[in-house]
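Long-time lurker. I teach an intro course on protein structure, and each term I like to show students one example going from raw sequence to a predicted 3D structure in token notation. This year I'd like something fresh instead of my usual example. Would anyone be willing to generate the tokens for the chain below so I can use it in lecture? Attribution to the forum is fine with me.
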Amino acid sequence: MITDEARERVRGWFSGRLPADWQDAPADISIDRDEIVVILALPDVEAGESEVETEEARAGRASAFREETREQRMAIAREAQRRYERTVSWGVKLGDHVELFTHLAAPTMTRLRQPQRQVLDTLVDAGVARSRADALAWCVRLVAQHEDDWLTELRGAMSQVADVRTKGPQA
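-- Reply from a regular --
Happy to contribute to a lecture. Here you go:
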């Protein structure tokens, strides 16, 4: 469980460390036990004559930013990784285009009974997923998409419990 204070520390460090000219708005920073994902908001490109042209221009700008800032991003990531003991991953957002450059895909072990395995196998057999692992990731994304408000409320409650624990008696 990542506390609100830990999140604030990481966000504060990055807001002070990231070059101002990299951002059109504050960076979106998400944190879990393994990884810090920094998504930089870049100025959007001028709209093209078609939606496809605009999307391609955004993808091109993201690619250029990735190449132009690689060395500096790697240096910042190394500093943060030493400081917070987590991998740092990067991405950019231009308009509604979000592109992650690198990010972890952490293996997760779980035990499933036959009815749950049959759900995954149905997704694989239907071509929705290539494997049970892909099917499980698909299910997790679907739950997150449809239950975002509930998950946000749950995370808030967990954060409050963690804050109360830190204020309790020390052993």
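Some talking points for your students: The CA atoms of residues 36 and 88 lie 5 Å apart. The two ends are 20 Å apart (CA to CA).
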